[in-house]
Amino acid sequence: MYNDNNKKKGFPDPLADSSEKKQKSYGLQYAKAIYSQWGQSSDTHSLYGRRNKIFSRNRDYANGTQDTTIYKKLLSSLNPMDGDGSLLNLDYTPVPLLPKFVKIVTNKILSRDPYPNLESIDPISSSEKNKMKDRMKMQVEARKELLALKEQAGVVLDMDPEEIPETLEEAEMFMDTNIKTDAEVAAQLATALTLSWAEFNDTTYRRAVQDVVTLGMAAVKRNNDPSKGIDIEYIDPSNFVHSYTEDPNFGDMVYAGHIKRIPIQELKRIAGDQLSEEEYKKIADKVKDKYSNDASRFNSSHYDDRYMRTIYGYDEYMVEILDFEFISVDTMYFEEKESRHGNVGFYYKGDNYKEKTGGVFDRKPHKMEMACVYGGSFIVGTDYIFNYGKVHNVPRNMHDLTRAKLSYSAVATNMRRMIPKSMVDSCTGFADMLQLTHLKIQQAVAKAKPDGLIIDIEGLENVQLGKGGELEPLEIHDIYEQTGVFYYRSKNPEGGMQAPPIREIGNAIRNIQELVALYNHYLQLIRDTSGINESMDGTTPKGDMLVGVQQNAILQGNNAIHDITNASMMMYKKVCQDVVKCLQIIPEDSVLYRMYENAIGETNMSVLNSFKNLSMYNFGVSVVKEMEDKDKEYLEQNIQMSIQQGQIDLEDAIAVRSLKDVNQAERLLVLRRKKRMKEQQEMAMQNSQQQAQAAQQAAQAASQAKQQELQMEAQLKQQEIQLKGQMDMQILQMEYQFKKELETIRTQATLGFREDDQNFKEKLEVMKEQGKDQRFMVQQQNEEQQIEE
Question: Which of 328, 390, 417, 429 is most buried (CB neighbours < 10 A)?
Answer without folding.
Answer: 328
